[in-house]
Amino acid sequence: MRILWVKAGKLLPVDTGGKIRSYNLLKHLARGNETTLLSYYNGPPDKYYEENIARELPGAITVSTGKPESTIGQTINYLRHLTSQAPYAVTKFTSPKVQGLLSAWDKERHFDVVVCDFLSASLNFPASLATPALLFQHNVESALWQRQAKHERNPAKRLVFKIEAAKMTRYEWSSLGKFDHVIAVSAHDRELMSEMIDPNRISVVPTGVDLEKYSLVAAEENSADEPRVLFLGSMDWEANIDGVDYFCRDIWPEVKSAVPAANLYVVGRNPHARVTKWTSDSVEITGRVDSVVPYLRQTTVFIVPLRIGGGTRLKIYEAMAAGKAVVSTSVGAEGLDVHHGEDILLADTDADFAKAVIDLLRDFTLRSRIGAKAARLAAQYDWAIIAERFEEILAQVADVGGAQSRSPQALA
């Protein structure tokens, strides 16, 4: 197949859940297909990025939109789009250059199928497409924005989130139908989107994990002999900022009281001030690291105290593949094939979350049992398997290779 993959924003470095998911699928798809990444990004031309993405994914096409990246520039840009019907998360990634390229390629039928990666790129697509097109929904965006509005404490930001949530809800409902098919990352997301379009046009391709990378940690003798708690994620992402702030404020004091020797490590790029303020003798905020593997290796308990967000958390399967015991909220583990009390502990109140962390820190047998079952579960989700399912659906949408005899719904 000739596949065009349209991605808003830079794909490298591969340091967020969405990038990890897209990068691994693209690498696997490129092995058996003529796959072209169109990576367009705001700001001035970045030669370093363009050289690196061309090396990682030969044939990649890059476009610099020139739109502002600074906080002040984005604030001014947001105010300019305040009256726009489309949400800012979409309009800020809309480019006449990209629209022109997609329109020309569509007229030429240059590709067999086009993938719109995230809803953020969707406004660049022609209203009517000759080329079969698929939307890859990593999240149900309207649900994500509604949760952000619900949990935001700052009145001004809460108002902005409410406005954007309302815009996103209208836009998502009206936009999904322009694509021939939609891929969701969980059955939960598929159920939510089934209210927006015919569920027969939605398939589920679950989140994957790099087993070769993380299973090595699980195979090692457990070297986490100190009570170390780990949170992993991009620390400039609102869901992660809120989760760490919440955990440090409402849960960590109880954990420290019960297990005085416990230490918390928050690992991830660009930590926000709401996160760095918690730095102390027992809380280390690392910022970006070259590899998370050394931190996972020394981890006793992996936490996902998220209250907002959408889609599925790759970090959970990564921790599971490494054989680590995970404590998560229901929102944090939403859409994943996990089982409370068997391969994960789920907790949605401050007291329950603290108790789960404390129990795992104190009980080696419980920790080992849950970690071992977690590793076995994660082994089913290697990226090679996930990419194969994604490719099958693409073939059906493109109507090539005789795949039309099978319904995409059969793969959901």
Major beta sheet, specifics? 7 strands, parallel
Q: Determine and state the CATH class of the largest domain.
A: Alpha Beta
**Rough outline:** globular
Catalogue the unreliable spans.
401-412
The CATH architecture designation of the largest domain is 3-Layer(aba) Sandwich
Q: CATH superfamily membership of the largest domain, which one?
A: Glycogen Phosphorylase B
SS summary, helix count: 17
Task: Summarize the SSE layout with pairings.
Layout: E1 2-8, H1 17-29, E2 34-41, H2 47-56, E3 61-64, H3 71-80, H4 88-91, H5 96-108, E4 113-117, E5 133-137, H6 141-151, H7 155-175, E6 181-184, H8 187-193, E7 202-204, H9 211-219, E8 228-232, H10 238-250, H11 252-258, E9 263-267, H12 273-276, E10 283-287, H13 293-297, E11 301-304, H14 314-321, E12 325-328, E13 345-346, H15 350-362, H16 364-378, H17 383-398
Parallel strand pairs: 1-2, 1-4, 2-3, 4-5, 5-6, 6-7, 8-9, 8-11, 9-10, 11-12, 12-13
